[in-house]
Amino acid sequence: MFWKVLSTIQKNLIYAIPIAMILGLLGGYFFDLSFLQAAIIPLTFLMVYPMMVNLQIDKVFAKGDWVPQLTAQAINFILIPMIAYTLGQWFFPEKPVAVLGLLLAALLPTSGMTISWTGFAKGNLNAAIKMTVIGLILGSLLTPLYTQWLMGKSIEIPMGKIFMSIIVVVFLPMLAGVSTKRLLVKRVGIEHYRQNIAKKFPPISTLGVLGIVFVAIALKANDILGQPAVVVRYLMPLLLLYLINFTLSTLIGKWFFSRGDAIAIVYGTVMRNLSIALAVAMTAFAEHGAEIAVIIALAYIIQVQAAAWYVRLTDNIFGKAE
To answer: Of 45, 64, 91, 134, which is the most buried if we count CB atoms within 10 A?
Structure first.
């Protein structure tokens, strides 16, 4: 029953995240929930560790499909960060924290949902898995450098804290996840693990996501309710960012790649690892973390809805799978 409920919540993040945001607003407005700051690290681990258990790191070294891989990472780390930064400067010229939030939402590409949505659309799953792992590792290493390069002149960037945050929220959970999988496979066998255990981990991360969203909104509740137009103002550049990202990736995929590789490129570049972006915001940017997290939480709503609609349109765009 517990796993069924978690799985249902995971499949309905488009509703669950707004509910968590509303509860955070109400809780933070009526009560002093500042003590929840202490829950950020445990919630972060709860959010990231389960998604790392099934991470297929060995796929990074698999041969083939190097052209779509290079294309996806060029979009992820050259085009999209610069587009996000430009949109941020355009919409928030006087608000560097908001620019930073938009940049963080764009700097960590791919999540487990990259693989899931690629599968739903009948794209190249092996390419999507490789993009997910490479994007996660590169994004984790490059995020501190990008934030310092683009934002260092307008806002204090705590490079040391960001690197420590990346270690705590990415590499330690990754190490724990890989170790967990090896121990379980050794104990029960690979077939039993795949059929009965592997699918139980991803829904657990949903609890961490909702917990972090609740805490972030609760900590900023008075500011948000005092200026409700700010939320609408945050949504506009996020909508534009995803629209540009989908359009760009779709055109590149359609013009230069096969159907399967094109779909992998779309989901390997549009889906952002917002869970890790949330974790970095809340752990590395103390006084600004909650405000940045509001932007990332709004990105969740757009991303999940847009990905679901894109699956429905895939056959119209790329033709039906053979």
So the answer is: 134
Which residue in the block uniquely carries the two structure tokens 């204090």? 156
Say if residues 307 and 149 touch (Cβ distance below 8 Å). no
Question: Which residues, in sequence order, are bridge partners of residue 12?
Answer: none
Among the listed residues 220, 210, 268, the one whose alpha carbon sits nearest the alpha carbon of residue 16 = 210
47 neighbors 279 (Cβ within 8 angstroms): yes
How far, in Å, CA of 17 to CA of 23, rounded? 10
Rg of the chain's alpha carbons, rounded to an integer?
19
Is the predicted pLDDT of residue 124 greater than 70, yes or no?
yes
CB atoms within 10 A of CB 235: 15
Domain boundaries, the chain: 43-315
Structure-block tokens of residue 280 = 């970095």
Residue 60's pLDDT band (cuts 50, 70, 90): low
- What is the end-to-end Cα distance of the chain in Å, rounded? 38
- What's the residue count for the chain? 322
What pTM value is reported for the model? 0.82
